[in-house]
Structures are given as C-alpha cells and as structure tokens.
Amino acid sequence: MAPKIKLSLNTGTDSACKSALKTAAGRKKGSLETLEEAWARIEALKNTPAEVHMISEVKAALEAGKVGREPAAVAKGRRLSKAEVKLIYPEVKSIIQQEILADMVDNMPSNYWLIQTEEQFNKLLSLLEKEEIMIFDVETTGTNVYQDYLVGHVVGCYSADIHAYIPVRHDTDETQLNAEYVAEKLKPFYEDKRLRKVAHNGGFDKAILANDLGIQLENLWFDTMPAMVMLNENEASFALKNLATAYLKIPSLTYKELFGNKGFNEVSDLKVAGAYAIKDSDLTMRLMNFQHKHLKRFPSLEKYFFEVEMPFVSTILDTESTGFKIDEAYAAEYAERLKKEIGTLENELVEAFDGININSPAQLKPELEKLTGTKLESVDAKKVLKPLAGQFPLIQKYLKFKGDAKLYSTYISVLPKLVEEKTGRLHPSYRANGAKTGRLSSSGGFNAQNLPAEARKIIVAPENKVIVGLDFGNQEGRIAAAKVQEPFLLDAFREGKDPYIALATIAYHKDYDEIDKDSVERKRAKTGFLAYIYGTGDRTMGEQLGISKDEAHELKEKLGQQMPRLKKWAQEQRQFVKRNGFVWIGKECRKRRLPDALKGDYRPLLQSTNAPIQGEAAIQTKITMNKMCEMLAEWRQNGRDFKQLATVHDEILVEAPLDITEHERGMLVNVMTQSYLLDGVENESDVEIYMERWGDAVRWQEFTEKRGY
Fold first, then answer.
1. Which domains, and CATH codes, for the chain?
2. Would I find Repeat among this entry's keywords (predicted)?
3. Contacts (Cβ under 8 Å, ≥6 apart) of 506
C-alpha cells in the first residue's frame, strides 16, 4: 500500500513571504549595484566631517586593492553600507599609518641623525661643544613626570642645523647606547648655564630629566608653547605638530595619529622612532625662528615673554614639585561624613519632590517650575538655579546636594589615590596660561581651588613645618583703581578703607562703621563695581543679587556717579576693541585678541573691560611667584628650607620651617607687595599661618604664642 503523503503548499505567512522576497530582492539589488554606485549612495548620506574623511580613505584603499570588503557581507550578498565602511576603517588607518611611517624613514633628511654607536654620539657631542643654542626634547613612556621614564633624548644643534635622536630604553633587540652612559655625557650640556635651551612644552622635559635622571636643566631660554600663546592665545591647539602644520606649512601628524596609545618605548623599530622624534627638534627650531621674528615686531611683548613667561616655566615646575602632604585618615573620615550628608540631602529632596529621580533633569525641571511658578530654560545650576536660590530654600538645598556630590566624586573620594608613591605627596598641575587672559588654571586630577574650607583640612603641614598663606589684598580692585586712576577708589585705598564698603556708604546712606565685610550692602556694592569691569548687564546683576533689573540698574547708576572715570574707561575700552579687535594687558605686555569685535559681536565688548584687569592680575601673580621662587631658592642654599607650595585664587602658599622668623615673614610680605608696583596704589598682603592643617589659620601673633618662641 502506498504511503499517504500530505503536501502543504503554504510556505508561511504572507508577511514572511514578503520578507523573504524583499531579502532576495535586496540581495539581487546588492549584487547588481556597482561599487561606484554604492559610494555615490553612501556619500549622499548625512555624514559628519569625520565620516566624510573616513569614507574617502576607505574608498581610496578599496579602489587601490589595499583592503577588501567584509567577507560576511559579501557572502550574504549585502550592499556596501556605511556600517561596513566603519568596520573596515581601523584596518585602513593602520595601513595608512604604516605607509606614513615608512615614508618618514625613507625620506629622512641627511641632517637627521639616529645615534646608535659611541662614534656617532661623540660626533654629536663635538658639535654641541661649539653651540650657543641647543634644542632638546625627551621621549618617554607616558606623561606622568613622577611615574614615567625617559626612553630617548632628542638633541638639536642650532648653528649646525643637525638634529639627532639617541634611543636608550626602547623595548627592542636593536642596538642602543647605555642609558646611564648617555645621561652622564649629556648632563654637562643640560646643566650648562651658558648654553641656551629651546623646547616645546619644556617644563615637562625639564621635570622628566630631574625626576628620572637627576639632571637639573639650566637656561631654558625659549619655549615655543608659551611663545605661541603670546602671539595668538586663540589657537585651537598648541601641540607642536598642529602649530607646524598651521604656521610652517609642514604637514605633521600627532603622536596619537601615528602610534595610538602606546608608550614610545614600545616603538621597537628605531628608524621609525628616530624619524618621528628627530623631526620634533627640527620643527621646534623652525617654529622658534618664526615666533621670535614676530615677537621682535612688538618689543614690549618680547621683553615680557623673556623676562616673565620664560622664567615662569621653571617657577611652575618648582611649585608643582613641592606637593601637598595629606592626612589620609582624615580624608577617609571626611569622605564618609560627606557621603552620609549627600545621602541625607538626597532623601530629603526626593521626599520634597514626590519621589522623583532628582538626578534626572527631565523629571526635576517640571517640579522646579511648579515650585517657582516660572518656565525654566533648564536646570543648569550656575546659570538658572543659583539666582533663584535666595528665594527658594529647596533650590538652595538642591544646589548644596549637587555641589557636595561633585566635591565627593571629583575630589574627596579620589585624593588619596592621587598621592604619588615616589614622593608621598599630592602634586598640583598648572597651566601657566590656562585662561586666555594669561591667568593660571589647574589641570590634572587635583585642583586646590575647588576645595572648601572643611575639605582643605585634609592637607597638613609636614613635621616641623608650617604653611604660610600670603594673599594679594583686593588684587583686582587695586589694579582697576591704578589703571583707571579713579579718585574715589584711590582715596579709599590710601586711607586703608575697604573700597566696597566705601561705595556702599554712598549707595545706602550709611556710615562706614555701620557696614561690615559680610553685609548685604557691601556685597551689592562689590557686585555693582565688578559689573563695570565684567560688563555685567542689569538683568544678570539683578539675578546675582536677588533684586529686580530696575533696582540693579539704579544701583549701578549710583555707583557710576561716584566712579565717573571707571564708567568712562569701560566705554573707551569697548570703542577701542571695536576699532582694533584686541585690548592691551598690563603695560602693553600682552594682547587679548577679540577679532569678533570687528564683526559687531557684542560678547567681545564685555571681555574688553574684564581682560585688562584679570590679565594684569595674572601678570602681577606671575612676577611675584618668580621673585618668590628665586628668593626661596637662595634661602635653601643658606640652609633655610622654604618652598613655594601653590597658588590658590589670589593667595600664594609657602611651606616654611616651624622656626620661621619675624624677619623672614617680613621678607615674604615684601615680595608680595614690592614685586609688581601699581600707579598710585600700594599693594597689601595679609599673612596667615596654618600650623597643622590648611584651613585652620592663625595670625602671626597667635602663631608665635602657640609655638612658644
């Protein structure tokens, strides 16, 4: 009997059939589409500039046969897609990278020397002996000056125009000279005070030489990084390769573009290492020549650069190298206390806002709008919420929660991890020109400026030492008074009065003794004064003070009547920047370039008054720190162990022996007040002594009593 077979002609649902047909059609379409058509389709998509570059490079590599398509995509008959291009791109980048490196090696100029033998090294040393200018750079395993180490020396002979690389610690089987031998031979040149040194970001190189090899570099004469800041503080990047591409018209790829994230010690092909490293010396020399030529066109800028900015490279390095000693037990206890406080604040806020996620702006914004009865632009703490905090205690609590949470996560919980094992200290890191006005800023993981008073107690004075705090008394106010020659301000400073209290007496019709430093009246007068300097509008000033726009305007007008020269100066500055596109800082020491002012943009007009004041304060701070560093170095040579520790806001911190004398205290104050003099206004400096913890200050008299002598 024949088996009964049931045939089903139903191959699936209609949708499944359609899907299969669509897939088949897609495969057919993909197999029929030419690569040229595929590229046209991909290039027509909405691509970012980075994607356009990627597509171009992958297309060129595919057409040249350097790479192929993804096998899986080809096997499935898929059309070339942007997603596939992204998968291919890493291989293309690697090929391009290798081609560039090979080309660098093949076309290395004859004045580029790779030093691998004593004979070659001695020839280089003979040239150096005849030089007056030496270009130098160090190649390292990384960028931490306490943990990373030198793997090779880059040395350039300026007059001979010879540039060399001496590899010493690469992970390679190729021939390298002994690291100690090379350091011993180069040390006399590095430490020669007669021989002028040129570098790019030379502070880093100087630190590596000191920390790794015990070499104390002398006469760092020209650093092309701060020189570029002097010529154009608005550069998008101050990296050597980017500056060489822009100004020398020498296309140059950055380290990361050529080697990724590997340390230079991992570059095992020494010809490749040499071709890359030696070029740094050549580019630095050419960039120095270019910059020096342009600096000479502005004698006041050139003078300031050599007399202030160049010494400041070493000053910053010396200051950073001192480092803070921290109390790790106190840090842990404070971190736990702060964590509990954050938790309590969060619970209270969640309860007040009906259980929402207060870390979600989308959930928080409607609740805050309900609370304030106004439509909020965002929940930005500084811009939107801070002006409302005075009116709404719940917003004040939220801002404290956010501030404490940031303090904990960014600083307190991580501070002990930032202590360098090699030194046992927490080292700050500064950008000498962090702001475009020349003001310092902190970089790296530790920023002492952001530590509130309670958190500062984590930092302690070492045994038999104290921390001396010396501030610039009302620094920006004095600079403004001297610059504008405003009689009201000059008189206040000459009479030893607080200028903001003096202004408040006029605005609020009160006697001087009726207003103290923490009063609302003083705060409002100071804000009104700064409004002229910072170009603050009436609305913004009102928000800062919790008053109406009209009240802010009225207060500014009252203060303006007392300071007509300041008001006039602000107007003149705005007219100057409209005509010239820049304003001068200091005695024409540097420029703040504001080119958008020439296009009618209003924002540079606000900076035209702020930059000269803030910038001159930066100049005063740098000159003072240079003088302080110089004096303390002399004291150390005479057996008195004083070190510049940090600069925080308008204060300089010095680590001093516990037996600091009255005379030494006076000398410290003298540096603060006499290093940079103002026209018609005397500088002042208050002294505070931190005997155990930074944050627990005592005055000199109390300090001597507690010390017992």
1. 23-105 (no CATH), 110-297 (3.30.420.10), 325-426 (1.20.1060.10), 470-474+618-707 (3.30.70.370), 476-613 (1.10.150.20)
2. no
3. 558, 559, 562
